[in-house]
Amino acid sequence: MMYKSLLLAAAAAGASALRMAPRSRLSTALRAATAENPDTKWAPLSRPESEYLIAEELVTNDEEASALADRCIDEAIRLFDAPSEEGWTNVFSEDGINVESKPLHGPYEDSGVLIVRGVGTVPASADKFYDWQVSREGFQSIDEYLVNHRMVEQYKWKSAEKNGYTEDDYDLMMNRVEWKYPIKRREFVALDTTDRKRKILISKSALHKDRPGGSKYQDEIPLDEKEFVRAVQYYASRVTPIDDENCQLEMVTWGEMCDSYSAYWVNLFNAHVFITPKFQRFREAMSGKKVWEESKIVDNAWRIIKLLPSIKPDLGLFSMKSDFVRGKMKVD
């Protein structure tokens, strides 16, 4: 089913390159001047043609982690609740899952990569599914590379505690994960926020002093690609009860491996290879199946490329400067 959707999407979309807008960045000086809410530079955050995503930001203490977590919660709720008719394009609907996409403005705008959201049902109560999702087994189903997952620092969510939260109601930590990737591994560093009261989970790319470098989409810290290429990602989910045996799951995701290939291809994969398989894994897990396995997502991506009749690895959508293309063509 996933291959069928991807082939149809590729045929419909064609191979036209996406227009890249000039990059706009929020300078350190401006961030200091707008410390209460650095996002005001990009207001309105939801526009008819685009949405805004918070960029990578340096976190050095509990206060900064708390302030960023608060803004990430607001951001996630905005993206969950944004009406479909306000610029969201339906990508596909199948197996009870509806997937939509929309362009971005702000620091990630020139990537050309769309933000993607999906909504569907999971056969479990909201409490059961959310508790499982934020367990180690649940995180393994979200991120198949959790075997390489390491905690960098844990924080107190001070602003949440002022509003009555206890340490049982949340987790707030900086984590890193290595992804196997052709030529050079990718590293993700993210502030992960678990809000058990609102049943929201967020993983947002961020910066930390103990992990040198950042991605090409920020200018706060110099690039450091001696060992890894820093990739960027965003994942948010919200679980809402339907009845005692079913819940609604909303997911919003955005990701970029910081490689040299077209955003067209990234957009296909973010919609078809991330959203739908996650729902399938979650549903299988709630039926009692052990679903964790070492990810083969890179190999699967390459197989699907070679299945598409209108796209070949040596055409314009794929630069021969790409680690992904060069690495996989060597293997083949």
Characterize the quaternary organization of these chains: single chain
Q: Please give the alpha-carbon distance between the first and last residues.
A: 26 Å
Summarize the biggest pleated sheet.
10 strands, mixed
User: What structural class do you assign from the helix and strand content?
Assistant: alpha+beta
> How many strands appear in the DSSP assignment?
12
Defining traits:
single chain; 332 residues; alpha+beta; ten-stranded mixed beta sheet; two-stranded parallel sheet
Give your account of this protein's structure.
The protein is an alpha+beta fold and about 325 residues long. About 30% of the residues lie in helices and about 25% in strands. The chain is built from nine helices and twelve strands. Strands 2, 3, 5, 6, 7, 8, 9, 10, 11 and 12 form a ten-stranded mixed sheet that branches. It has a two-stranded parallel sheet with strand order 1-4. α1 packs antiparallel against α7. The longest helix has 24 residues, at about 265-285. The protein is globular. It starts with a helix and ends with a helix. The relative contact order is 0.18. Residues about 1-35, about 300-320 and about 320-330 have low confidence and may be disordered.
